[in-house]
Amino acid sequence: DLLSEQARSRPDMVAVIDGTHQSTFAELDARVNRLAGVMRSRGVVKGDRILWLGQNSFRVLEVLLASARVGAIVCPANWRWSPAEIAFTLDDFDPKLTFWQEAEIGEANRTARAAWKPDSHWICHDGCNGADDYEALLAAADPEAEFAPVETGTPLLAIYTAAFSGRPGAALLSHESLLIIAWLAMMSQAIDETSGYLVSGPMF
Known about the structure:
- By secondary structure, the chain is of the alpha/beta class.
- The protein is 39% helix and 19% strand.
- The strands form three sheets. A four-stranded parallel β-sheet has the order 4-3-5-6, with helices on both faces. The chain has a two-stranded antiparallel sheet with strand order 1-2.
- The relative contact order is 0.14.
């Protein structure tokens, strides 16, 4: 809803910059709608889990927002993980859909994928030029913008941590908690619509 409102009230304002890629709020909103359509075409429904196996990218934000629209839970995994650690997460998180990266970390991702469920859904986000290429799927996706309401108390973001039991587990953050975190950051750091935010750390 917040993205839709930004797209309505500030359609031409720049929302995301990543290298040579740049999206306005209207463009981001349209891409997120299409990605949500891709997710639904792969059978993703409320409560399903989405895994991101990649480095920092504007597409992480798109996956998070599309997951919010369909009621799914997204986990941006540690891209430094070994194939064994990725395999653990696949078994533990059991994603309905996995987004993965070929450049630099493709070997570990492919190794883990080959050892997991053969009928699982994977989408390559950085131009693998196959049937499961992110940009090609977005271009062909249903641009439908109608989504069923999602309860704000339901989980949206999963972050793996060993802080609770000494072994990795996914801590779940709700839509509501992420909104509160963002609001607190805005208030404490005087962030407004003219601000820019540099993401320099790993997004997992």
